[in-house]
Amino acid sequence: MATDLTLIGRRAKAAARKLAALSREQKDAALHAIAAALREQQAAILEANAADIAAAHSAGTSAALLDRMLLTPQRLAAIGADTRNVAQLDDPVGEIFEATELPSGLRLHKRRTPLGVVGVIYEARPNVTVDIAGLCLKTGNAVILRGGSDISRSCAAITSAIGAALERSGLPAAAVQSITDTDRELVRDLLRLDEYVDMIIPRGGAALHRFCRENATIPVITGGIGVCHIYVDETADIARSVPIIHNAKVQRPSVCNALDTLLVQRALAPALLPAVADSLCAAGVELRADPEALAILSDAPGAGNWTIKAATAQDFGTEFLDLILSIRVVDGLDHALDHIAAYSTGHSEAILTNDRVSADRFTREVDSAAVFVNASTRFNDGGQFGLGAEVAISTQKLHARGPMALRELTTYKWIGTGEWLVRS
Question: Which of 2, 38, 95, 284 qualifies as a FRET site for 255, CA 20 to 30 Å off?
């Protein structure tokens, strides 16, 4: 039976109207019911996931991708715990802000409201199904999910559990719907379902984000593509800089806020670069150095223990998502700012310095969603920012920038109250 996207959209819009009127207590109860349903339907979910894993393994899927797809009892329990944690977060819906009284006597304020219907397109992470559903429910939004075809069975089983929990809580099951038909044309159709969907969030690689931007008739929040830089100036403390660089590159190299390019001021390079190489290469990092950095590293005493290559033009501006780091020696702050402006994707950048003037200028002039001083780029994360959770990291400037948490899944309306006022 063909998937009827119009019907899915119509049901989502009707569900969104009901969700918008719910109290925090009703939404939180539904989130706890979802966590319980994941536990109750664990066997069916894991069976569906095992079928997805078997099919992907037969298709030659890499071990790293198989691990992203895999659900276990422990992972499912952690997903349930995360859902209960969302219930503990403050509910932004209904928040009143920017209240004022105008000379006309009109009392005016903004009230935070749900967006309506959110469409999320993602790839091989079945946990995203629950993560997104929980955040959207907390903010009173209905959601249409389209996971990758390689996790379609997992998504169907998880959505079934969520739907049962919603109905048990007195909420419409259509508040969370998954498109599990593997027809890729349905992605394009979802991007054009502007009569019913208010915002699209893609979660995946650069190709998916580009496809969404080029084909959508709905506002698209793109992000999650991070070519991240750290600039180390001549005043930086080497002993403190090396652990930050190591953390930014090595802790989780396959994520969007991991370090891709290290920029080092020329005067500091001879002392810093060998220390960086010792630390990173011991963790399996391959260094791709510009001619000046390559000369410094090749002549250093530990060079025989390091994996170093000459950088190509393509190594700058590349999101490696792997244990690879490009290195460039720069003249100073101006040169570093020019490099970042040319190659950054607007995600996360950092400066390591003891010079407050340089730090202030760096934070003013670098045009990225998150800019750090003497801290790892890995901090650009909803949980690390104290937001509790995130639906994505936006590198756009409208309507949200950086980690998109609950507040970023809302909009607002103006409320004006008068004493039988007419405009003069």
Answer: 38
